[in-house]
Structure formats: C-alpha cells, structure tokens
Design brief:
Blueprint: H1 4-24, H2 32-50, H3 70-74, H4 80-85, E1 93-100, E2 108-112, H5 113-119, H6 121-130, H7 137-146, H8 150-161, E3 165-168, H9 175-180, E4 182-190, E5 195-197, H10 202-205, E6 213-217, H11 222-230, H12 253-262, H13 279-290, E7 299-300, H14 303-311, E8 320-328, E9 340-343, E10 348-352, E11 356-361, E12 367-375, H15 376-385, H16 388-396
Parallel strand pairs: 1-5, 2-4, 7-8
Antiparallel strand pairs: 1-6, 2-5, 3-4, 3-6, 8-12, 9-10, 10-11, 11-12
Pfam families: RNA_pol_Rpb1_1 (PF04997), RNA_pol_Rpb1_2 (PF00623)
GO biological process, one term: DNA-templated transcription
Domain RNA polymerase N-terminal: 2-262
Length: 397
C-alpha cells in the first residue's frame, strides 16, 4: 500500500521521462504542437502534485478515491501544522459539554460512563487481570466492551476513587486563566453523556452552561497525582491571585434559591402589595389569613424522617414542622428567658420559647432535647452546611 504522494510523484516522473525521450531519442524533430502537448501534461502532473483538483476534475485511484496532494496534507484540522506542529492529540483525555450538577461537592465532577471507561480502561484491565477475572488483555477488553458485568463498573469506581482528573476549558488567555482554568476534581460516575460540574467553580473557568465544552485529562504519574491533590483541587483555589477577591461566590439562580430557602412565605420576590399585578392576589391572601384555621404541624424524631416526608411530597420547603434534636448542654448555653416552664412528676420539665421547646431532665442535666419549630428549608439548609451546632447556636443568641 503506497502513499498518495508517491502515486502523484510517479505520474510526474513518468510524464517527464516521456518528454525527455521525445527530445533526446527521437530520430525526427517533433512538431511544435506535440511539444506543447507534452509540456502541458508535465505541468498538469506538477499542479496535481501540489494541489489536486486545481485544474478541475481531481485525480482518483481505482476505487474512485481522490488522491491527497501536498496542500491536502498541510491544510485543515488534520493537516500537518494543526495536528502535529501547533498541537497534537493527547492520550487519556476526553471532551464533552458541561452541565450543572448542584448536588455535587465543590471538588467533585461527574463523568459519563462512556468517557470514564475509556479514560481508565488500562487501569480496569489491570484490575481484571489481578483479580483473575481475565486471562489476558484481549479477554479483559472484550469484557469491557460488553459493559454488562457489574464487576467492571465496581473496579472502575475503585480506580476513580484514587485518581483525580484535570478539567480545562479553552482558551486560557491570561495568567488567571492558566492558574484557575485547569483544576483537578474527584470524578464520580453519572448518567448521560455530559460532564457535570458544580456551578460555583464556573467563574474560574469563565464557563457557563449554554453549550460550553471542557476537556478532561488523567494524570498518570504519582508526582502529577500528588500535585493535582495538593495544589490544583478546586476547593484550594477560592481566591483570585490578582486581587484576593473570592471566586466561588453564589450568583443568579443560586441567590434566588437561597432566598426561597430562607423566606417565610413562597409569594416570591415581586409579590407585594405595591405591585398592581399582584395586588389582587395579596388581598386574597389577606382574606385567607383572616379565615385561617389552626392546623397541627407535623413532628419528626430525626432529620431522616423529615427528608423522607419531603421526598414523598408530604411537606414542602416552607412547611412548618417540629424536629427533635439531642444536644449537649456544654455546647449550647441558652441566653433567652423561657416564656413558660412546665414540670412533670417524673423529674422532666419543659422550657417553652418562641420558636423551640427544650425538654430537660433532672437526672441528666447536661443532656436535653430540643423541639425546634421552623420551616423545612431552614433545617435542610443547615443540614447541607453540615453544622447543626452552629444552626442551633444562632437560636440562642
């Protein structure tokens, strides 16, 4: 199998030799018309070598395939300059569209199954061979191509736990883009064919979720993995190196979501009595509040029961409820005077406050239960922050 350039060169040499034989070995002097025709054929062969198709119909082979000339080898995305000199394809890398992943942690990213199995294929093959699930590389690759055995995905998840990945969004045109435009993340498997990203890390990449693409790379050496974990994780690049301002700040929909979680009612930002479009709704709401009848608020012994009720649509984000907590007296000290105190015959007494109820015991004075009366959005927000003590400390200030 020869190259297309060799075939075009062969055509030039053949026509040039024909012209040379005509000039040197011919007994009679060739006519002027014949000489012009032979020179024209040589020039046509040279032009086809430089740019096939410049004279109209391109030259093709026996399978009706167009020969690639010098210009075809150089130009285009797969040409010599753009593919080899200006850039090159990188192994253990992929590219896909980014979408928002609000449930992800700041240092995590979601990789589709197709991208993850290709990036970590060699590690999965090694895991299959070490566990004696495949005798050689060919058998391991066939098991990966089937994508039906759960052991393949189990090994893939184990491999991903120990290998961070690098995400990059082109172009990186300034120093901040180079420093923050390439960050490391802990990958997890997600459904679909897009890369999931936390919305707070988009500012460092100068990315948004309107079709932007990002490249993912796998660091292979131990030095690269250590550098990715110690220096390049997204939660370690929270401040701008230029002016020191925070980069991961909530904007747009995140601010609206925080407002909804912390608001007492769900009327919305623009629903007020001064808006003529909402004046009628506000009057109807006043009538509803006047005719409001007391309804018993739900009670939950722990946050997991409340989460189950929220997922089953039994409560909403703004639904008031009672939630029971067990805390240490040494952690939280009440500075508020109770409204009422009820004593029981068994030694327990209830301290009633404005938004919570404390049940204390004479036998165990350092431990008590708090029955807090707030909307589910407050408990949900404090649970995601992972600081219940800080949340209840704010109740006593």
């Amino acid at each position: 199998m020869s190259s297309d350039i060799n075939e075009l060169y062969r055509r030039v040499i053949y026509r040039n030799n024909t012209l040379t034989d005509l000039l040197t070995t011919s007994r009679s002097t060739p006519g002027e018309l014949v000489m012009c025709q032979e020179k024209k054929l040589v020039q046509e062969a040279v032009d086809t070598l430089l740019d096939n198709g410049i004279r109209g119909q391109p030259m093709r082979d026996g399978h009706n395939k167009v020969y690639k000339s010098f210009s075809d080898v150089i130009k285009g995305k797969e040409g010599r300059f753009r593919e080899t000199l200006l850039g090159k394809r990188v192994d253990y890398s992929g590219r896909s569209v980014i979408v928002v992943g609000p449930s992800l942690s700041l240092h995590r990213c979601g990789l589709p199954h197709e991208i993850a199995i290709e990036l970590f294929q060699t590690f999965v093959i090694r895991g299959l061979i070490r566990q004696h699930l495949a005798s050689n590389i060919g058998v391991a690759k066939s098991q990966i191509r089937e994508k039906k055995k759960p052991i393949v995905w189990e090994i893939l998840q184990e491999v991903m736990q120990g290998h961070p990945v690098l995400l990059n969004r082109a172009p990186t045109l300034h120093r901040l883009g180079i420093q923050l435009g390439i960050q490391s993340f802990q990958p997890i498997l997600v459904e679909g064919r897009t890369i999931c990203l936390h919305p707070l890390v988009c500012k460092g990449f100068n990315a948004d979720f309107d079709g932007d693409q990002m490249a993912v790379h796998v660091p292979l050496s131990l030095e690269a993995q250590a550098e990715a974990r110690l220096l390049m994780f997204s939660h370690m690049n929270l401040l701008s190196p230029a002016i020191g301002d925070p980069i991961s700040v909530p904007t747009q929909d995140m601010l609206i979501g925080l407002y909804v979680l912390t608001s007492g009612t769900r009327r919305g930002i623009c629903a007020n009595r001064y808006n003529p479009c909402n004046r009628k709704n506000y009057q109807n709401e006043r009538i509803y509040e006047t005719n409001y009848k007391y309804m018993k608020e739900p009670f939950f012994c722990n946050s997991y029961d409340a989460i189950g009720a929220y997922r089953q649509k039994r409560i909403n984000l703004d639904s008031p409820l009672w939630l029971r907590w067990q805390l240490d007296q040494r952690v939280i000290a009440s500075k508020e005077v109770p409204i009422e105190v009820h004593y029981e015959s068994f030694g327990n007494y209830h301290e009633i406050y404005a938004h919570y109820l404390i049940v204390r015991s004479v036998k165990k004075p350092n431990f008590f239960y708090i029955y807090s009366n707030h909307s589910w959005s407050y408990f949900f927000l404090s649970r995601n922050r992972g600081s219940y003590t800080r949340f209840f400390s704010s109740l006593f200030i």
